Amino acid sequence: MKNTVIIIGAGAAGLMAACTLSNAGKTVTVLEARNRTGGRIHTLSNTLFFKHTELGAEFVHGNLPVTFKLLKEAKINCRFANAEMWRYKNGNFEENSMIIEEWELLIKKLNGLQKDTNIYDFLQLEFPGDKYEELRDSVWKFVSGYDTADPLKASSFALRNEWQNELENAQHRVDGGYCSIINYLANECKAKSGKVLLNSVVKNIFWKKGYIKVACEDGAAYEAEQLLIAMPLGVLQASKQEKGAITFEPKIPAYSQAIQQMGFGAVIKILLEFTDAFWLDKKTEAIAGKDVNKMGYLFSDEEIPTWWTQVPDQSKVLTGWIGGPAAADKIAMPDAEILEQGLQSLANIFKRDINELKGMLIASRIINWTADPFSRGSYAYDTVEAPIARKLLNTPIENTIFFIGEYLYEGTAMGTVEAALTNGEEVAKKILN
Q: pTM of the full predicted structure?
C-alpha cells in the first residue's frame, strides 16, 4: 500500500492532481461517480448535432497560466472567442451596453465598507429607495447571472475584489472542446499505471492517520494511505440521505461545518440547434435597426435572460443561461418546460411566433446542473464566512485527507477551470513535499 492515493472525482481538479501524483511515482486510483470523466466539463461530440459544443464549462477567460501551460504540454490549440455584448431592453437592441449606471458610486461605497456583509443587505443600506431601484436590480442580475450566486449570501468584500480585478482579457475556446484537456489528463494518469474507475459512487470513508478505506455503493472497497476529495462543493453539502452524499468515520465536524459555510451557485444551460441562424437574419437586422453580425452575447429581462452564439465559429447553435436563485427555483422543473421557456424567451426577443421557432429547432439539450446529483450546482462563490472556512478546508486532516477543487482556489479566477486545475496541482505538490 506504500505511496498509494485515492482521489474521489474525475473532474479538472481531481485529474490534474492524479496526473501530477502519478508522474511523481505515486500509485493513484481515481473513483468517479459518473459514467464519464470531466465532471462539470462536458463536451458534446455527437457528429449529427452540437459538434464540440459545451454543456458545462465553455470559455478560457483571459490569459490563465495553468490552463495555457497544460494546453501547450498537450499540444491542444485554442481560438480567440471575443464577441460583442448586447442588451435587449424595452423592445430595443443596444450594442455594448453592459455598463451599470452609478457603477463608480457603487465601487466607491464598497471600498468604504469596513465590515463584510452580503451584497443584498449592503445595497438596501447604501442605495435605498426608488432612486436606486435600477442599480439594485442590475447588481442582483449580475451577481446571480455571472457569479450564479445568491445575492442574499454573496460576500460584498469578495465581489468588490472581483469587480476591481476583472481584466478585460481575451476569451478563448479550446479546440475540440474542454474535454480534450480532460482526456489528456486521464490518459497521462493511466500511462503511469494510474486507474480511473467510472460508475464508482462513494458512500463511506473510514480513516485514521495514514490509512483510508473508501466504500462504494456497489460494494467495492479501496484502501490507500492518503485521500483527495475532488467532489463538487454542492455534493459535499448534500445531506446524508441524498444521492452522492458521503459520510466520514470518524466524523470531521469542523470540516463539515466549514463546507456548509461556503457558497455554491445554481445554473441551467440550454443548447438549441436550429435550421438557420435566425438571430443574424434580415428580419432581426430590421427589428434591431443595425448590423447584428457582431452580436455574440445577448442579455434581456426574459425568463431565460442570457443567450450567446458559438463565436468565432459559424454555427446554428444558441446557448441559453439562467443562474442564481432563479435557476435554483427551477430545480424540479421538467426539461420540456425549461425548453418551452427558452423558446418563448427567444420568440419575445426576436419578435417570432414560438411555433416558427419550434419548426426550425432540430436539436435541444437542457442541463440542469443544480438538479444533477453529482454536481448539485454550478461553481463556488464567497459568502461572508467563506475565507475562514476555506482556510480550514485547505488544511489537510492528519496529512491523510485533503480537500481539492475550484472552491478552494485563492486567486482572482474564481469559479473557473483554471481555479480547479491550479488547486489540484497545488494540493498534489503539497502531498509530494
A: 0.95
